[in-house]
Amino acid sequence: MKTIAIAAGMFLLTASTAWAVDCAKAVATPDLNECAAQEQKAVEARLNSTYQKVLKALEERDENHVETRKKFVAAQRAWIRFREADCSAAYQYYIDGSMRNLVHIGCMQKRAEQRIKELDAFLGP
User: Fold this and answer.
1) Which burial class, exposed, middle or buried, applies to 79 when counting CB atoms under 10 A from its CB (0-12, 13-18, 19+)?
2) Half-sphere exposure of residue 64, counting CA atoms within 13 Å on the CB side?
């Protein structure tokens, strides 16, 4: 009996990791949330990469890069707090609905995409 329970548990673990959501066909809320989270993860990676490029550019282009870097990092931290507060408000607005997570993830993604554009502009042509 113990062997059957262990085998069943292992099957469930492998089945859950092997199950991939087809985001092109997702309609159920959990699947939509998963797809949105995957997209958001990719956008966050782009945001971090762009941020790191700006930090590197500051060191290469700016004589006063230490002071500029301090201000830039402070601005980024303020932006992070703003984004979290803004998207938390959107989540709270939809707290009783099944779309609250999608709204929150969408907000986070939209803000990150906008910030990427701002950081790219900071880098200049």
Assistant:
1) middle
2) 5
DSSP structure string for 37-98: HHHHHHHHHHHHHHHHHHHHHHHHH-TTHHHHHHHHHHHHHHHHHHHHHHHHHHHHHTTTST
How far apart CA 32 and CA 22 sit, in angstroms, is: 10
Biggest alpha carbon distance in the chain?
Answer: 72
- CA nearest neighbour of 117 among 60, 54, 62, 24: 54
pLDDT tens for 95-122 read 998 889 999 999 999 999 999 999 999 8
Query: Looking up tokens 């959501």, which residue turns up?
Result: 21
What average pLDDT score do residues 38-53 get? Answer: 94
d(CA 116, CA 52): 11
Quickly tell me which residue has 């998963």 as its tokens: 34
Alpha-carbon gap, residue 109 to 33, rounded angstroms: 13
Q: How far apart are CA 18 and CA 11, in angstroms?
A: 10
